[in-house]
Amino acid sequence: MKTAFANGKISLASLARGLGGTLRAGANASQTFVCGLCTDSAEVDPQTAFVALRGKRTDGHLFLPNAIAAGCRCVVCEHAPALSGAAVIEVPDSEKAIASLAAHRRREVGCRVVGVTGSVGKTTTKEMIFSVLSRKFRVFATEGNHNSTVGMPLSLIGMPNNAEWAVLEMGMNALGEIERLSRCAEPDIALITNIGAAHLGMLGSRENILRAKLEILSGLRENGLFLRNADEEYPIARDGKNFRTISVSRKGRKADFSANNIRVESERTRFDLCWAGGMERDLCIRVAGAHNVSAALFAFAVGIAAGVAPEAIRAGLFAFETNELRQKRTEIAGVTLIEDCYNASPESMNAALDVLDALCASSGRRGIAVLGEMRELGRESEELHRRVGERFAAGNAELLFALGQGGSAIAEGALEAGVSESRVHRTEKTDDLTAAAALLCETVRRGDIVWIKASRAVAAERMGSALKQFLSGKEGRDHA
Hints:
Blueprint: E1 2-4, E2 10-11, H1 12-19, E3 22-23, E4 33-34, E5 36-38, E6 48-51, H2 64-69, E7 74-77, E8 87-90, H3 94-109, E9 112-117, H4 122-133, E10 139-141, H5 151-157, E11 165-169, H6 177-185, E12 189-192, H7 200-203, H8 206-214, E13 224-229, E14 243-249, E15 257-264, E16 269-275, E17 278-285, H9 292-306, H10 310-319, E18 328-332, E19 335-340, H11 346-363, E20 367-372, H12 381-393, E21 399-403, H13 404-416, E22 424-427, H14 434-443, E23 449-453, H15 461-479
Parallel strand pairs: 5-6, 6-7, 7-8, 9-11, 9-12, 10-11, 12-13, 13-14, 14-15, 19-23, 20-21, 20-23, 21-22
Antiparallel strand pairs: 1-5, 2-4, 3-8, 15-16, 16-17, 18-19
Helix pairs in contact: 3-5, 3-6, 4-9, 4-10, 9-10, 11-12, 12-13, 14-15
């Protein structure tokens, strides 16, 4: 990952101070400048400092010679080997050094910060909040899913000087990571979208996932605001001395911001919202699925807290657009293709099937679910995959294409729940999906709704690309 300094360039002496490191080797500290940082030696250039990180698979220190050979004039590392041709900033811990520089940048800009975490829906919620706040303020947000202990701080380092609000997504793989991110970002508003099964493989239980997500309160500023999901089966938090709590609910539970009369349409979702300011009727987000209403409620609550007028919030919600791998909808040759390949968990799989069922029921069209493996579910993985299969069996979709070993468990769950063999197709090895894609192309017919959903590592978008190529050719032949 690479980031540019918003202020243009800074001297190596200033960079060393910001990183909490020591400038060790051969450079005129006051006369040598860099314009950014990167953590991949393949991205270095003479204007960018390379930060050597220790990872699970490799050690960035091994690539220091490569970075210097590529023209890098400054490297940041935890030990200073015998290097020539570049300055060296030595730090005790490279990852913590990046966080230190990011925290300095956050305080330097002085904007207000929203921190977003949760098992699923983080990026959608972040983007909706960004869209709402942008109706009134200059807003910075982390790009994509740059939410790790490296990605979020690097993004924050590049925050522009004129930012009035920052919306930062915080992810984790272990206990303690969100605490580090929260202390770095010092949010004024912190929210947890939900507590789901994602990361069970790393944390072992939903209780531990809850503990990890609650770490977002560690850096919450004095008199800050905590937004919780009242629809959660696990208690989240009570009011504390240094923050107040606001709740949202899309399931009709008692909350400060609650939704009702949710109407899912083919390309959008409408709902009414009740809050202390009254009733907001017929709010609209241009994405299908009742589960997306939770993100809209969080965005509405943040907008109110920030002083955005309800009408401007309404416009911000309507302006929200999903990225290309989140429920990307393509109409081609009479087929509706929905590519939802950004990520997958039991909760988001069930939500996808809910929407597919609703679309099939309202239109009378045939539904095809292409469901891939869900990662990081630990010992409960097989059972959770089987439950998704059972959920498929209970719905309106006609055909199931199951991808990966986890997908095989989805298929087994569907078969055990009464789905016939003729309706289920499975592909256990996902390194090559050519045969599966060919079968999908042979099976699909005009009027079908095809929904593709899997964890990012499966790269299930290959199925969508093959289908679009096939249908484009078919559409061309039909018009010939």
